[in-house]
Amino acid sequence: MSSIADLVDLDSYPIDDLGGAAGRALVASSPDDPGRFFEDFCNWQRIEEYERFIRDSPAAAIAGELMGSQRVRLFHDHVLVKEPATRQPTPWHQDQPYYNVEGRQACSLWLPVDPVDRDSTLEFVAGSHCGPWLMPRTFMDAEAKWFPEGSLEELPDIEANREASDILAWELEPGDGIFFHMLTLHAAGGASERRRAFSVRFLGDDVTHAPRPWKTSPEFPGLADELPKGAPMEHPLFPIAWERTAEQ
Prior knowledge:
By secondary structure, the protein is mainly β. It has 3 helices and 13 strands; from the N terminus they run αββααβββββββββββ. The chain has helices at about 5, 50-55, 60-65; strands at about 25, 35-40, 70-80, 90-95, 100, 105-110, 120-125, 165-170, 180, 185-190, 195-205, 210, 240-245. The strands form 3 sheets. Strands 1, 2, 3, 6, 9, 11 and 13 form a 7-stranded antiparallel beta sheet that branches. Strands 4-10-7-8 form a 4-stranded antiparallel beta sheet, with no helix packed on it.
């Protein structure tokens, strides 16, 4: 079997084709940044290596065991590329408040395909997945484009008092992977070397659709017409990636 790094070959990714197939690609760094932070979402249906990894690697099974779920659905894939000398950090945030889902069985996988040093790796606040939903904001301008101002608790200023938090982080090699709950607070610095990562979000049994009156990140246009509020995520956009057998 090919390694995870072989299955996700981001060297061939068309990073200059901003907009991608579904118009979700974006540059998340400012024009004066000497590097570039590029992101794209939801490409498993057009990039064979992504679908092979999601369906054939052990990732979904690991997510299922961690979540204690009978089934694991794909939510979306996410490519993150920080070119050399990128200053733009990934600010402290939770994943789930940006999304259109409710439930506790929600898991993210972050998989680097380049060596990642301590300064560029993901950092996590241990135990933060047990806390409340915190206000999601845009990474560059800190705008509240999702939940209205004042409707959710603000993130604490972790950087101003890092000693007050139990911060976990690891240097990583290609093929390493980090699984974490979608409410876990996490962040990352810029990148002195090229830092490419492939991320997959997985959903468990208790996750339901939560249509929003705003554009989620990523957006699923027209989904609210097909899945009502509170419905399970049973839709071709979110295929079953793993299912527990009687022997398991």
